[in-house]
Amino acid sequence: MPYQKRPMFKMLGMLLLISVVQAATLFKVPLTTSLIAGDPAVPDRNAAFMTTVSLQAGNFQTWSNVLVDTGSCLVWVGGTDQQQYIPGSHSVPMNESFGAGYGSAGASGTAYLDRVTLGEATVNRQVIGAANYSYMSSFEPFDGILGLGVPGCNGGEVSGYSTTPTFVEGLVAEGSIESPVFGIYIPPLSEEGISEGTGDITFGGIDESRISGEIVWIPQIPPYTNRYVLNISSVSYGSTVVQSEPVATYTDTGNVALGLPFDAFFAIYQTVPGAGLDITSDLQGSITFSLNTSADALLPVTISFQGVNSSLDISIPSSKYLVPKSLYPTLNMTDDVLHSWILPGVLGQNFLQNVYSAYDQENHLIGFANLA
């Protein structure tokens, strides 16, 4: 999608490098997942999953802990306590500032055009924020954000520009990939909170080796410049349908939970004998189960989607939606109940670790597939 510019300002396009179109290919970028502990001394610092990549830019610099965020679309590095961006031979000052907010967190600094590399993927003229200040206590520790959200969702984040091109748009504009499509495989966490293997982002298409069967493409709900919003068609607990009407939600790689629509959430809460609500841990509001309830007695949660040409059921067993007991201390949980990742809300990391997810920005589609 072409970026937009306020008429009174210079055109960003004059600074963009016009590249020779290359043969289309797929670019894979390794990513890792870790669980960051909460900090009771910091009110807005809750435990969170961090899916991160390594990014190269500036003066031959590498930031190895850059958060992958499908809910925003600006790229920035540095910050208050992190490695500062130093302009290099490919850096072009935009003579503008940037500022990005994420609820109770954010960053600000100076905007550049620079060569930005993620694994095999490079954009030669990418808008990047060089943060000289950040207030990121709710997301620490990491040293930047790779925004992979929908084009246009960074409106006003670079002064003087209504929007700026995303990393995916840059890959298309420079001929590295044919279309703005990418897929994400997020590895699950072990009971110790360590990533089980390496995940990846595939730019230019999807990684067929990661999926079983066909990918189901679900229409994105407009407006298309906000988030990757889609409909859940139904939710079941075991064989009981607990949500029968379509409900809008969105994916968020920076969210911990297995987020369910409110009706489905409360139906499960009311259905399971001895179920309760967590009111003290870093997963406040999540469903808990009695210690008298065995994990084998808890039924799978199945989330169903209606795609353009087919449907898909993602079944998540209790072994996947129960929090491993070894993580209770990290999440400030008590051991007098069984804790779960189930919260009302969005399709966060506990869901995304159970599927392969993909995003087609040109055709406004979100894809899911069962894992191989």
Automatic annotation (TrEMBL):
Stored InterPro entries: Aspartic_peptidase_A1, Pepsin-like_dom, PEPTIDASE_A1, Peptidase_aspartic_dom_sf
A biological process term (GO) from this entry: proteolysis
Gene Ontology molecular-function annotations: aspartic-type endopeptidase activity
Entry keyword Cell membrane: no
Pfam families from the UniProt entry: Asp (PF00026)
Superkingdom, taxonomy of origin: Eukaryota
Coiled-coil parts of chain: none
SUPFAM superfamilies cross-referenced by the UniProt entry: Acid proteases (SSF50630)
Residue ranges annotated for the Peptidase A1 domain, each copy included: 51-369
Name assigned to this protein: Polyporopepsin
Protein's organism: Sparassis crispa
Lineage: Eukaryota, Fungi, Dikarya, Basidiomycota, Agaricomycotina
